[in-house]
Amino acid sequence: QVQLVESGGGLVQAGGSLRLSCAASGRTSSGNTMGWFRQAPGKEREFVAGITWSAGITYYADSVKGRFTISKDNAKNTVYLQMNSLKPEDTAVYYCAARRVGTARQRYEYDYWGQGTQVTVSS
């Protein structure tokens, strides 16, 4: 089992920044891929960004490319999502997720999930 705990959500004005953290524990592996997803009220959970633990390969949804940056700290077993130039449409609950190996963008491809952290962007 892998446990994931997100933090860093909050309320921010449009154009502002937030940094989310995801601390991983348990049976983590250098082969894991970590992802960030988000779910707005009444909408499906959607992929935001992903990173591979070993090579640090990153990939993003088009809607956040150029504004969000995913990174990792191997020593702390923590993944971050730096969110800049935030827009009201970025408002959602943000979830951290992990899968055993390989990049993926679909919700069903991830095996472990955190509890989520709320991000609210006011206009």
Helix content: under 10%
Give the oligomeric state.
single chain
Report the average pLDDT across residues: 95
> What is the count of β-strands?
11
Alpha plus pi helix count: 0
Order of helix and strand elements from N to C terminus: EEEEEEEEEEE
Q: Beta-strand level of the residues, as a percent range?
A: over 45%
Compute the separation of the termini in Å. 40 Å
Query: Would you tell me the structural class of the helices and strands?
Result: mainly beta
Shape: globular
Question: What is the rounded Rg?
Answer: 13 Å
Q: How would you characterize the largest beta sheet? A: 7 strands, mixed
The unreliable regions are none
Q: How would you describe what is shown here?
A:
This protein is mainly β and 123 residues long. The protein has no helices and eleven strands. Strands 2, 4, 5, 6, 9, 10 and 11 form a seven-stranded mixed β-sheet that branches. A hairpin with a 4-residue loop joins strand 7 and strand 8. It is globular.
